[in-house]
Structures are given as C-alpha cells and as structure tokens.
Amino acid sequence: MDIYIKEQKGYAPQIGHLVSQMDYARKTTLDSIEGCTQEELDGLLSSDGNTIGALLLHMAAVEKGFQIEFFDGRNPNEVEMEEWGAAYGLGARGRKEILGHPLSFYIERLHRVR
Questions:
Q1: Comparing C-alpha atoms, which of 18, 23, 86 is closest to residue 51?
Q2: How many whole angstroms separate alpha carbon 106 and alpha carbon 41?
Q3: Model pTM?
Q4: What is the spatial distance between Cα 5 and Cα 18, in angstroms, rounded to a whole number?
Q5: What is the dihedral of CA 41, 43, 46, 47, to 10 degrees?
Q6: What are the Cα distances from residue 59, in Å, to 38, 45, 89?
Q7: 24: exposed, middle or buried (C-beta count within 10 Å: 0-12, 13-18, 19+)?
Q8: For residue 106, what is the DSSP state?
C-alpha cells in the first residue's frame, strides 16, 4: 500500500496532513529496519552516538511524551520517566540502558504508543 501525505477523513485538513505525515514517517522507518539483527540495533558508529535501537525507542518516547503533555495536560510523572527517560534523553544513559533487545521489542513499543 502506498502512503501519500494528504488530508484524512475525520480530521481538519491541517491535522489530517499531520496524521498522514506521521503515518508515512512510521511506515518508511519500519520498512528501513525490517530484518535488523540485535547486533545492528545495538551498534554504535561513534562513542557519543546513539544506536538504531535507541533511536527507535526515542521515537516512541517522544510520541508518548507528546500524548501525556497534550492529552493529559501534564508532564510525565516519575513512573513514566523511569520507563521512558533513557529513550527520551538518549546520551550516556541511553547508550547504557537501551541494549540487548530484538527488533520485535522496538516495533511493539512503537505500536503500543500509537
């Protein structure tokens, strides 16, 4: 199925375009990581970079954070920051904590927040 950025039924035109863009970004990301091994997901190109796995979890964390802020009208609480903090902030904490997961783990998290 081809995805094009366009208006979506049930949404105001600008919101529909945003939803369409988010869907397109998600599809192209999932297409790009298909078949990645755990070694590829955990690989670092530089000592201060982020892994593919960390970036995937970061995408889920940012989306979850926006949902909490916009829909719940608050900042993430302590429990949510414990779950998502490493992925939200990345950096040294992300390099230390976001390792050892199969591709299915990241895909499940991306689907769960959506």
A1: 86
A2: 10
A3: 0.86
A4: 8
A5: 100
A6: 18, 19, 11
A7: middle
A8: H
d(CA 113, CA 6): 23
Sign of CA dihedral 101, 93, 23, 33: negative
Please give the DSSP secondary-structure letter assigned to residue 98. Answer: S
pLDDT digit string, tens, across residues 54-75: 999 999 999 999 999 999 999 9
- In angstroms, the CA 36 to CA 2 distance is 22
Per the CB < 8 A criterion, the answer to whether 110 and 60 are in contact is yes
80 versus 10: the higher-pLDDT residue is 80
Compute the residue count for the chain. 114
Q: Taking 80 as the threshold, does the pLDDT of residue 7 lie above it?
A: no
Residue 38 token pair: 């755990």
Distance of CA 94 to the CA centre of its chain: 14
Mean pLDDT of the chain: 91
Q: What is the DSSP letter of 72?
A: S
Residue 82 CB neighbours (<10 A): 10
